[in-house]
Amino acid sequence: MSCSGRPLIVGSETPERPFPLFVQGTVVKGFGRGSKQLGIPTANLPSDIVEHALNDIHIGVYYGWAQVDDGEVLPMVMSLGWNPFFKNEKRSGEVHIIHKFGEDFYGQNLRIAILAYVRAEKDYESLEALVDDINMDISVAVESLKREAYVRVKDAPFFVTKAK
Asked: Rounded distance, CA 103 to CA 122, Å?
């Protein structure tokens, strides 16, 4: 257990149906809140991906792996939902890749492997409480992805590797 009372590892020992769920799309501009307001940049999935490819999974937070173009496969957390704190009128898919990037990558191809559900979406009383929970989600993703069955997904043929 973490100091927040939430477990640091969630999900079964191996991904369970419907996971892994592999999705790809072009990174689009979102609301501009991830980096600016939260200090947690996100890569936003196109609305058609959110409405069709992700329509059958619950609203909430997930973890898995992400790759931009043919770059390194990195851990990620994804928020899928309405973002009630910000009162969104449209469902969105926002992927935070757990890595410091030097620049934005709008228009580039994003591949994600969604591996497990972390928690339900919820509203917050303050921006600080939201950021604290997102940071906890990041810790949960990092710890949960250390398990062998989850690490192996990084090598899935879905992810593109550079020619050597």
From this structure: 30
CA-based nearest residue to 58, from 18, 110, 113? 18
Q: Is 94 marked active-site?
A: yes
Annotated catalytic residue within 51, 72, 94, 125: 94
Q: Tokens for 107, please give them.
A: 């228009």
Which residue blocks in 81-164 are alpha helix, DSSP H? 127-144, 148-151
How far apart CA 54 and CA 70 sit, in angstroms, is 23
Would you kindly state where each structural domain of the chain is located, as residue ranges? 21-154
Secondary structure element (H or E) that encloses residue 94, with its range: strand 92-97
163 vs 74, higher pLDDT: 74
Determine the Cα–Cα distance for residues 131 and 149; give it in Å rounded to an integer. 29
Provide the whole-model pTM. Answer: 0.91
User: Average per-residue pLDDT in the chain?
Assistant: 89
Assign a CATH topology to domain 21-154.
Answer: Elongation Factor Tu (Ef-tu); domain 3 (2.40.30)
Q: Strand 60-68's sheet: what is its strand order?
A: 21-26, 109-119, 60-68, 74-81, 92-97, 43-44
